[in-house]
Amino acid sequence: MLALLILLAVLAVLVVWAVATYNGLVKKRNIVDNSYSQIDVQLKQRHDLVPNLVETVKGYAAHESGVFQEVAEARGAAMGASGPAAAFAAENVLTGALGRLMAVAEAYPELRASENFLKLQEELGVLEKKIAVARQLYNDTVLTYNNAVQVFPASLLASVFGFRKREFFEADAGDRAAATVSF
Description:
Number of helices: 7
Structural class: mainly alpha
Number of domains: 1
Distance between the termini: 86 Å
Shape: rod-shaped
Order of helices and strands: HHHHHHH
């Protein structure tokens, strides 16, 4: 009889642990999804701003059609990306294309003095900062989630219920390279 009570107590502890671990993993996964949604909101605002920025630059530098085409294609790919991994890759391409667009704008002093361009540039800068903060939050929540999914003994339960490691929102390899400065 005592052995049966001990066995039932051990089973009860295991069930309580399994339920608590499962619920904790679900909460962490939901936090990751929420933090990705915050990035998505900021990226959609940037996608909406890009055409206005391109049109403003086009007015001063119409012959730079290759850059405009590159930005348009990158924006389209970013808007059409599905899932975090594809979105991250597409957004890195868009960021590079926007950098080239801003480099073109630097060659036109009258454009840089344009009130409309300055306003759009400032708005883009604010959005980029918000995106950076949202990326950091996302990566922090992914780290917490990945740790929860990969540590033993929770990893056993995670694998049974299909909790998988999530990808971080990393900078493109080109963004990590050291900048070259020459005078």
